Amino acid sequence: MYFDMGDETLWNPSSGAGRLFVGQVEVVETELRLPSGIGQGKHWGDSDTLEVGPALFAEFVRGLLAQHDRTRHPVFRALSEGFVATAVALARRAGDRGGAARAGGCVRP
Questions:
Q1: What is the pTM of this model?
Q2: What does the alpha-carbon distance between residue 94 and residue 11 come to, in Å, rounded to a whole number?
Q3: What is the three-state SS of the chain?
Q4: Are the C-beta atoms of residues 10 and 52 closer than 8 Å to each other?
Q5: The CA-based dihedral angle spanning residues 18, 52, 24, 58, taken in that order and rounded to the nearest 10 degrees
Q6: What CA dihedral angle connects 23, 67, 96 and 33, to 10 degrees?
Q7: Best CA proximity match to 3, nearest among 16, 17, 18
Q8: At what angle do helices 74-93 and 54-70 cross, to 10 degrees?
Q9: Cα separations (Å) of 30 from 8, 46, 63, 85, 104?
Q10: CA distance 43 to 99
Q11: pLDDT for 18-52, tens place per residue?
């Protein structure tokens, strides 16, 4: 699976890991009421390539970090740790060096 920004591949996880991440993105989009900026790739019908919109994704990750920082529920935090870390790393690769790349909650630069 490919997470691309223009002609650059930001991340190329296995199909299973990529699908799991995308599934989590969809849940979090609903919870935050924010679009993630991750959408269909350049080639229609190619479900293994997703395009990352850097500005929308950075905003999504900032919202994710804000929610994570506010939440003190131990199960919620435990379930979201890996997703938050992965989203921050992807935001960094997409060029966000501001809000999404800061230390927040469990995430350290």
A1: 0.85
A2: 10
A3: CEEEECCEEEECCCHHHHHHHHHHHHHHHHHHCCCCCEEECCCCCCCCEEEECHHHHHHHHHHHHHHHHHCCCHHHHHHHHHHHHHHHHHHHHCCCCCHHHCCECCECC
A4: yes
A5: 140
A6: 60
A7: 18
A8: 160
A9: 28, 24, 12, 19, 21
A10: 31
A11: 999 999 999 999 999 999 999 987 666 677 899 99
Q: Residue for token digits 């994704």?
A: 57
Q: Can you give the length of the chain in residues?
A: 109
Give residue 55's identity as a one-letter amino acid code.
A
